[in-house]
Amino acid sequence: MNNSRRSFVSTSALALPALAHAIQAQTSPFRRPKLKITDIRTAEVRGHGYQVHVRVYTDQGIYGQGEATDSAAGAVPIIAGFRRMLMGRDPLNVEAIWESLRTGGIFAGAQGGQFVTALTAVEIALWDLAGKALGLPVYQLLGGKVRDKVRVYCDSANHHPDDPKAKEKLQEIEKMGFTALKIDIDEARDPARFDRVNWTASNGEIDRMVKEVAFVRSCVSRNVDLAVDMHGRYDAPTGKRVAIELEPFKLLWLEEPVPAENVDVMRDIRQATKTPICCGENLFLRHGFRELLEKRAVDIIMPDIQKCGGLLEARKIADMAHTYYTPVAPHCVVSPIGYMASCHVCAAVPNFLVIEWHWISRMKLWKEFVKEGEIIEKGFVTVPDRPGIGVEMNEEAARTAQVPNTGWFEETK
Ligand code: MG
Question: 310 CA to middle of ligand 1, Å?
Fold first, then answer.
């Protein structure tokens, strides 16, 4: 009896650590996937403008894909330069990678521009990868969704009253289900311009702008919101006059009546008018938006999520804006991959207003670019529950827009 008890005790004492290890290995503390980054590759596409697609590869056979645009020219060699710092790292620590790449680049332009745009593409790829590795949609990793459907506005060039097809096209956009439109009223070739360089608009130019807004307003239902972009191409007196003259149209916003760099001037215009003022598509990181918000210089901010620093950075910018009760209407001109990535952010932030869509003149490429096909339904995008961003590139279609003489996700030698 004693012998058998002794033997039981001694066997159990030996077995317990092994058992505890086995339990730990099979339960939550060790469920987190272990991955290492093995490569980072790029492809260049010309859709609405120039886009860089990035893939981050791992030793577990999965990769994440991200996309950057606009200031992405020059991003490819910057991303190649990131490779040394990324190889062998755990891709699930997205914030740690982002912070190390950014702080590692403070003498290389990491305050904005091409550097942050390149970093953005990588950050988005890391979230796609994290979602795939964990079996969760990106919105879940950003805090979960506050809405299922993301409202889209259509950027349309159909605002010329003399264009015989414009009215029909605008009404077609409304029939497609869009509840908001945007038009551009800056016109370098306006015959009423007196000076090719100076951006003080003449009376004739301002009359043309008002006429175009009135025309579009008359073509669509009252419930369709209208935003108007001046692309930051005018000076302060013009910006102020246009904002005041457009007040009767109750615009969703007037975008960048002056460039965004001088926050005080933007605030002067905002204070002079009832027309809501929106800006921020060329600002980077939280730092780019801080002063704008602190000085109450805008009514709405519009970070471009494919260049402002990434999905989590966009969420942080939106959260900063939320403390000022300021809505966020992201600028967005990318393919359905970057677009859906942006929509995950839009689904996750409470103060989202509406997101841009700019591919109406590229419908074939838009619908074929991802294997899932059309992602906009009646003017809204439903964020998918599939892991990661939830859309995969259709390479055959995407390659029809490949930038000539560039590589296509070439393995790094
Ligand atoms: Mg704009």
Answer: 19
